[in-house]
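Annex B. Sample input.
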Amino acid sequence: MKFLIINCGYTPIYTLMMKYNLSVTVKNVSLQAKKIVSISFIVTMLFPAFAFGKVKQDKYNYAKARVKYKQRHSGNVDALYADGIKIKRDLFMIDQAQMDRTYKADAIPSDKLYGGIWNEEFVHCYKSLENFPDSFRVNLNGFRIPTMGYVTSNFGPRWGRMHSGVDLKLNVGDTVYAAFDGKVRVRSYERGGYGNFLVIRHPNGLETVYGHLSGFIVDVDQNVKSGQPIALGGSTGRSTGPHLHFETRFLGRAIDPTRIVDFENKVCHRDYYIVDTRSFSPNRSGGSSEILYAKYSSRSHNKYTSGRVRTHRVSNGDTLAEIAQRNGTTVKKLCALNKISKRATLRPGKNLRVR
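Annex B, continued. Sample output.
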């Protein structure tokens, strides 16, 4: 057994000796410096693996890790360069698409189309416009139904005056949602008509009106997103009960919302709607209207909205058999188109699809 002479002041060396069960003789503090040097030499000789083994292992692991995670490229450099350009191009296109879907907070939606007119008081304030387009393509992507209620009253002449929208069933306090992205143009009250109402202009060229509200959630000049809560349903103004009066307008002129929206299925009939002179003619055929749409750009079709759509407004006393005979179809087809049974109760004012 070897004995090492160390200084009491060198605690780390002392601890090392105790850890490896070495016999340690502690001498006076006045030992010569050369004895301390010899201790260092002896420790080095006794523990060469301890002194250098861990460093070598760490270096080995580090080198191994670098090799393991080293990125290797195969193929020629030109191909890698082309891939990088493609990625940059795709990112640019994504950024452009995002910019097309949004507009600045202080910008006015469809400002050029509306001749720079932005009135915060009246629903129809565009009579001074002279250049009315012969046709206009309206993008209906992103539509959200304003409320989930069914149609209780349709567009057209009613009680000696023009009913410029559709009425949708709701309860007082129900949330009303924006139909499209847009900006609030009017937030007002009309005692003999709309009651509390909002007008929102949309980037697609339409304006939507929400009437008989009990409360507002948004304010004038506020940007809103499709499906965002904007108001609470009610029965203010000229109203016989709680409902939402909903209008779709183009340059101030009312369009029958059922030409654009399938309220039965809570979706738009098509991705696009073509506004032309026929869009503003009220339905005078006594309960049916033919709806024409733009050509569909996709090969996949919605079974509820493909082709030409024809609807019939149910009147008191109507039966499925009478409606089918009047429109040259069968009761079975009517039930399939409208997802109803042959014994379903027909509610007056309800629109049934007959084609």
